[in-house]
Amino acid sequence: MAAFPVFWALLLTQIVSAAGYTFLSGAQQAWLADEVGEDRAAHLYLLGSQYGRAAGIVGIAATAALATLGLHVPILAGGALALMLTLYLWLQMPEDGFTPAPRGERQTWAVLTTTFRQGVREVRASRVLTLLMLSALLYGASSEALDRLNEFLLIREVGLPGGLSAANWFVLLALTAQVVGLAVTEPLRRRINPADAGAASRALRWVLGLSVAALLAFASAPSFGWAAAALVVHGVLRGLYSPLYDAWINRGLDPRSRATVNSIAAQADALGQVSFGPVFGLLGNALGVRAALALAALVRLPTLGLLRRAGGGRKSV
User: Where are the bilayer-spanning segments (predicted)?
Assistant: First the structure.
């Protein structure tokens, strides 16, 4: 993408990236749960999010510095780092909890289809998993509106203060969200027991409820300070959502279909983004960006009821 900044190349990179994401989605969570066990993995999901925030701070600062050499330079650097990480994982990543299929059964469409159907059956047979998938769908739909419209609201509706360029303001906001998230998540990580499905359920409902309030506050922001604070709070809460959701959904899954179930959850989130993203765009044109973002927050509200119904129980019918 950075080497060939033309439309067809950009489009091709998005297709390849989406295909790669499909293979990756759910694989990391499933691998970790199988390697260290569900209870320990639940804690590591939160700890991993902390490392991710710390790395994000370094990455944002490095991106800002490299961008002074050209906007394509950070993209090239990111691609090179991704390739290096791939090589390292290929050589060093253990997989002791995985039992490979017999050689004669590998890479066959029949086996792939059977695994997929097994994962779908596990989701359909479990009330908790079904409710979690619906929650992922609505959360993805709501998040897509914020991802696509937050810059427009800050630049066109609220207005950015002087003194910094628009790019630098967004870098500063991203850094602030990461730093605050790092500071807030650590004490929460020590107090929340994500290995307890009930505790994970309650924490996830609190996170989602507060994120609805933050999104509504952002949509109605009368000033840049208000909007920036709401956006930072929402970013912190968003960073807590994924590890708590991962800890909950991986409780009691069949190891043979764990990766498939995690992938279905990721695809449910993506389906919400693809399905509702254009809708919120049209609403933004018709009713205004603030109204579209407020509606996106309301779309997230039903997830609270879905998660309450799911409770903290086992994944049974």
Answer: 71-91, 166-185, 206-233, 279-299
Are 129 and 251 in contact, with CB atoms under 8 Å apart?
no
Other CB atoms closer than 10 Å to residue 274's CB: what's the count?
A: 13
List the beta strands (DSSP E) in 29-113. Answer: none
Question: How far apart are alpha carbons 74 and 61 in whole angstroms?
Answer: 11
The contacts of residue 123 (CB under 8 Å, 6+ apart) are 129, 130, 133, 261, 264
- Measured distance CA(257)–CA(254) in Å, rounded: 6
DSSP-derived 3-state class of residue 164: coil
Distance CA 256, CA 247 (A): 18
**Residue 104 in this model has a pLDDT that exceeds 80:** no
Contact in structure between 211 and 237 (CB atoms under 8 Å):
yes
Q: 138-160, pLDDT tens digit by residue?
A: 999 999 899 989 999 999 999 99
The encoded tokens of residue 133 equal 């998938």
Contact 240, 49 (CB under 8 A): yes
CATH of domain 7-94+118-308: 1.20.1250.20
Assess contact for 124 and 133: CB atoms under 8 A.
Answer: no
Q: What is the rounded CA–CA span in Å between residue 195 and residue 48?
A: 15
CA end-to-end span of the chain: 46
Mean model confidence pLDDT for the chain: 85
